[in-house]
Amino acid sequence: MEVGEQANLIVSPRFGYGSLGLEPNIPPDSTMHYDVELLEVKYGPSVSELSLNQRINTGNRKKDRGNWWYMRGEYSFAIQCYRRALEYFDDTDLPSLNTEEEVHILLEERLKTYNNLAAAQLKIKAHNAALISLEHVLTCQPSNVKALYRKAKILKEQGELESSVKCIREALSVEPNSQSLLQELSTLLATQKEENSKRRDLYKKMFRNTRDSEKTEGETQDNGNVSNCSFCYSFSS
Predict the structure, then answer these.
(1) Per the UniProt record, which EC number(s) apply here (predicted)?
(2) CATH of region 143-213
(3) Do 5 and 40 meet the contact criterion of CB atoms below 8 Å apart?
């Protein structure tokens, strides 16, 4: 569009307010029509040109937008917003003269965003991507309870029960009275016990089948020897 130009925008529910709408004004699955006029064009500064506080403020706006989408169950849109927020929480090429406290705030917001990103990725079953996001958190904060809990969930889904139990135990060392963690640990241990029982039963069955096979083979050989001896005896008489 050129400056001063007018247009009618037709926005499908997928790119608007989705199946939830925005009550009371916008019903579910609404197609939106916007009459717009382009008044002015301004080019914003690149991320590297922003001050640390500007990065934090802009990143938080995008993270909050991601949280809004997440609460609506629109996890793909939430992921896009979280990724965009992370660009502003990057601590490379920071302008000079920043206090340690300001840089720490930037780091904290980045780790929160990675945690939120992992939660959204979990919702769409993007487990490997979620693990990468969680590693960003746990590398800086090994005792981050939310990250440990979410990592345990992924490992459980992937069948790595022992590693999942380890993560929950680490989280409990930080929050020993957390009922959700205690419940998750109890569930994991019960699942682990059941899996071990199934594995033992499988090994017993395999061992029994092996023994039965060897026994059958031995009996076949014995029957063959008796038949040969009977043949020899009959011939000699």
Answers:
(1) 5.2.1.8
(2) 1.25.40.10
(3) no
Alpha carbon 217 to chain centroid, angstroms: 51
Closest CA to 168 of 194, 195, 187, 196: 187
pLDDT at position 87, please?
94
- Residue 212: pLDDT over 80: no
> Distance (Å, rounded) from C-alpha 108 to C-alpha 100?
12
Statement: residue 83 has pLDDT above 90 = yes
CATH of the structural domain 1-42, one choice from 3.30.450.20, 3.30.420.10, 3.40.50.300, 3.10.50.40: 3.10.50.40
Per DSSP, helices labelled H in the chain are 52-71, 75-88, 100-123, 127-140, 145-157, 161-174, 179-236
Q: How confident is the model at residue 118 (pLDDT cuts 50, 70, 90)?
A: very high
Contact 116, 123 (CB under 8 A): no
pLDDT at 231 over 50: no
Same fold for the pair 43-141 and 143-213: yes
Structure confidence at residue 229 (pLDDT): 44
Q: Evaluate whether 66 touches 120 at the Cβ level (below 8 Å).
A: yes
Phi-psi region of 149 (alpha: psi -120 to 50; beta: other; left: phi over 0): alpha
For residue 13, is the peptide bond before it cis, meaning its omega torsion is within 30 degrees of 0?
A: no
Residue 104 pLDDT greater than 80, yes or no: yes
Report domain 43-141's class: mainly alpha
Q: Judge whether residue 220 has pLDDT over 70.
A: no
The answer to whether 190 and 165 are in contact (CB under 8 A) is no
